Amino acid sequence: MEEQLLVSAAEKIPGGGGDGESLVLCEVKKQVCLAGPLIVGYLLQNVVQMISVMFVGHLGELALSSASVATSFAAVTGFSLLFGMACSLDTLCGQAFGAGQHHMVGVYNQRAMVVLGLASVPVAALWTYTGEILLLFGQDPEIAAGAGSYIRWMIPTLFVYGPLQCYVRFLQTQSLVVPVMLSSGVAALSHVLVCWVLVYKLRMGSKGAAVANAVSFLTNLSILALYVRLSPSCRTTWTGFSRQAFHGLLGFLKLAVPSALMVCMEWGSFELLVLLSGLLPNPKLEAAVLSICLNTNAFAFMVPLGLGGAISTRVSNELGAGRPQAARLAARVVMMLALAVGASEGLLMLLVRNVWGYAYSNEQEVAAYIARMMPILAVSILFDGLQGVLSGVVRGCGQQKMGACVNLAAYYLVGIPVALFAAFVCHLGGMGLWFGILCGLVVQMLLLLAISFCATNWEKEAMRAKDRVFTSSLPGDMANVDYSTGQVHPVYLCGRISKIEVLGTGCYSTFTLNKIYRETMENFVRVL
């Protein structure tokens, strides 16, 4: 009976008095308003490191090569890890906000900053030995030494990047995305001046460009922190630092680790393409073409990435509020948007295929190779966009473990083996490598599609979301409820040990958990 009431309540979507078309249009507006500022914000955050590399490029070929290698190494070994772990807040903060447990949004944010800060320590130690690691993998000694020096000066950036991503998710899950865009804009604009001062005026060279990343990210973080502290919009979600942030760290890691694996396996597979291109005949040409394709794909992915952030917010908010039908509608709408965006971007790539290469190189050979790559790149942009928004649906539901398994299978059991076979056995070169990644993207998209629309029981996901928020918001003593047996473990209360029996056994809906909470509180009063 209780579960039927929950499902019945979940069917009531706000604004549900209209027809289906009006609901879809309303959902489209919500997602576009969320995704627009996020897309601009992500683009501006990526521009920061691009500007640093551009400044280094004017210092010489060796400095540029070293900075490029260091940036790729940092992305795979550090930034992808922190970005992925922060993505767990898409689930936790989003569902807590939707459920009305606003204070838990701030607690989750603080907890994430603690965990990401601790995770940054071993990464910083790894970065200290980057030069030696690159030498072990056969990198040119001069480039390895330069990359090692550059990345050591990027270590402060690592400790700023984690909290920055946490604040972005903290605001995003409350649909406060305009401050994210504006702060990223200020940081990107000031970054040009910071780079100029450090690289040329203070004559720090490439080291100055690396330090400039930390300065600009810190500027971004400071603006967001001030907004959260002073804005009335965050009054209920940020109530100051809490000792609760240091509780439940292992529980947070159970969601953060799979979330990080999702991102790391995806980013790593694309970076692996550049390494494999060095083993092909004419490696300079192959590496240059694949780098251009990666940059183009990354630029095109900013739109699906923003849509993915928007849909993770919409799904997590609706599930936390107990509205599974609204969450399912949001997932369907974002697929239509992603399909339209991917098709448009792919068509644009085909239209400019004969001139796009000249934007990166004056070499006719490079431009001609890019033109041949464009059809397969256009298709990969479409599927990459679809998997990007489906990954957002997975994060909104809290199914990161499933997502990590999908990425492992798609890229490392299908994509990379096919890339190796096509490039080195079929002698297709760089086109073969990219074809392998395309196969991985197709498999990833199909598996995520099956999970999101065939295997997901949205009503159960709404119950899980409510239960997750409920158990997290319990006081420390109350958190010892064993929901599989309906028994509260011995707790210490006002100097007395009391074993309290509560409701029976079975699968608990949100109503049952609320009943457990009420009855346990009544028993606490009796003990007193």
UniProtKB/TrEMBL annotation:
Where does the source fall among the domains of life? Eukaryota
Subcellular location per the Swiss-Prot or TrEMBL entry: Membrane
Q: Which GO terms describe its molecular function?
A: antiporter activity; xenobiotic transmembrane transporter activity
| Key word Transmembrane helix present | yes
Keyword set, alphabetical order = Membrane, Transmembrane, Transmembrane helix
Chief place of localization: membrane
Note one Pfam family from the annotation.
Answer: MatE
Q: Which InterPro entries match?
A: MATE_euk (IPR045069), MATE_fam (IPR002528)
Gene Ontology cellular-component terms listed: membrane
Q: Where is the chain membrane-spanning?
A: 39-60, 72-93, 114-137, 143-164, 176-199, 211-228, 249-268, 288-308, 329-352, 372-394, 406-425, 431-458
Biological processes, Gene Ontology terms:
xenobiotic detoxification by transmembrane export across the plasma membrane
Q: How does it sit in the membrane?
A: Multi-pass membrane protein
So what family is this one in?
Belongs to the multi antimicrobial extrusion (MATE) (TC 2.A.66.1) family.
Q: By its UniProt entry, which PANTHER family does this protein fall under?
A: MULTIDRUG RESISTANCE PROTEIN
Write the protein's name: Protein DETOXIFICATION
Q: Which organism is it from?
A: Lolium multiflorum
